[in-house]
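Bumping my old thread because nobody answered last time. Still need a sequence for this structure:
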């Protein structure tokens, strides 16, 4: 059940889109993603934007 406390805790009003990650959420996910490859074409888009999409 949503309370005023939990509603404020999980509010996403300050984000551009509801699917965007907060900095705290990104800090948890970033270490789990692969680093950029040293060969081939460099990434065109940051991984954070891809995950948010």
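Sorry it took so long. Here it is:
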């Amino acid at each position: 059940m949503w309370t005023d406390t939990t509603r404020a805790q999980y509010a996403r009003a300050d984000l551009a889109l509801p699917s965007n990650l907060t900095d705290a959420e990104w800090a948890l996910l970033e270490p789990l993603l692969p680093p950029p490859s040293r060969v081939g074409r460099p990434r065109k888009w940051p991984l954070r934007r891809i995950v948010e999409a």
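The chain has a mean pLDDT of 90. Let me know if any region looks off to you.
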